[in-house]
Amino acid sequence: MAVVTRCADHVNVGNFKMGCLIDAKWGQDSFSHGKRGLVARPKRREYDANAPLVSRWLALRFFLPNECPPMLTRPQFVTSFPAWICLAGGLLLTLADSALAGTPSGLVWPQFRGPTQQGHAEASAKPPTVFNENEHLAYKTPIPGVGWSSPVVADNEVWLTTALLEEKKLQAICLDYTTGKIIHAVTIFEPEEWEEIHLQNSQASPTPVIDEKNVYVHFGNYGNAAIDRATGEIVWKNNEIVVEYMTGAGSHPVPYEDTIIITCDGADKNIIAALDKSTGKVMWTQGRSQPLRNNADTHRSFSTPLIVRNAGQTNPPEVMVSIGPDQVHGYDPRNGNDLWYTTYQGFSTVPMPITDGESVYVATGFGKATFMAIKLGGQGDITKSHISWKNNKGISLIPSPLLVDGLIYMSTEKGTFLCIDPATGEQLYQERLGGNMSSSPIYAGGHIYLADENGVVYVIKPGREFKLVQKNELQSGQVKGSPAAVGNSLLLRSENGLYRFE
Questions:
Q1: What is the span of the domain harbouring residue 248?
Q2: CA-CA distance, 228 to 216, in Å (whole number)?
Q3: Total-model pTM
């Protein structure tokens, strides 16, 4: 909300210092025309999370006299533009900001499983618990083609990917968050033939990554690309990394500093690669160091790595926990160096790890599915030194687990929901909900949200005892992507479109 204050040498209206035009947070760049009209450009071309779009537009369009030069000083400004007008303008900004209180600002859900990769929304998020085709529905926008990528959100934009099967096109779709209107439909790749995929998969399953400037997409062997958010123009493409998935790509890209990290565990080779965000150039690659079985089918994996603080370590300060076939690794995300590993019996792993800062919790995939706790901070082979416990009862093969208030929650592809004590690995309860599940649960506004493949969304209260708060039934085809929670809204992709409930 805009705040108007008066001080000795300037008047502040919202986030604009009306004496020198730009607050210190914005730097000293001049104004320029962007896709949304005349806006202030900070030095790094980032939008200030505390300056809503209408505040900036009104301040520049109405509260600055046309004859003012871009870097007007206070003495010039005040003699021609009384402070009371600034104060009146501040009131209008306050009203405008209040009207757009539900509009996102910043990178609110920038990747698979949200801002921390843990499935947690921002603390202020409060999506509805009751919603359906008629209640609390802001919009339902049809999305052309097929795809199970989940939505990502930044500012007033929602991005996801899709495959147009008949036209043989792979696209990135951008929607206006507020209205649901499609802004961009960017065709990135046009393959001559589609690769074979699993019936549960799609040609557009990996979720995009979004930052202040670009959105980054991963389509497996078809390639990777960056798209300029403002123009919809393709910045770069890279299709150097090719492996034999056999069932299609499934791992989601992960951002780290100036790179995008992709995981490609194929039947023929296993490659983790970091691509430069600016150019798409491959910065480093890494393989799997531990032996694989003779059966090439067991060489594949589809999990997404988790980047966490390296407990008790400063070099490197962070570790990337990556689940591969028959092995789990901790890599240095700066260069791909292998820091530690442990082995297990499993392959085609899909669930993403979670962490409490001291340990990571890992589901091992098909075969003899096991859920285990690995203490962070190890080096080399940690099998005997850093494995706290293992649990192989009813473990998920597809949805990722969720950690909330000291308890782990897990939905399974068979439609069950269970709670585990992370201190011991003990299962506290297991409940059958309904249909099969591919979507991963998220936490927002004090509730857990998870969807089954039939389009039923369950709202559950966290705790040591199971408590179902609400069961919401949608009627728009299958649901396999994971929801995103932004402000007072819940976004969910179905087979036929994108919902936003508020």
A1: 137-501
A2: 9
A3: 0.81
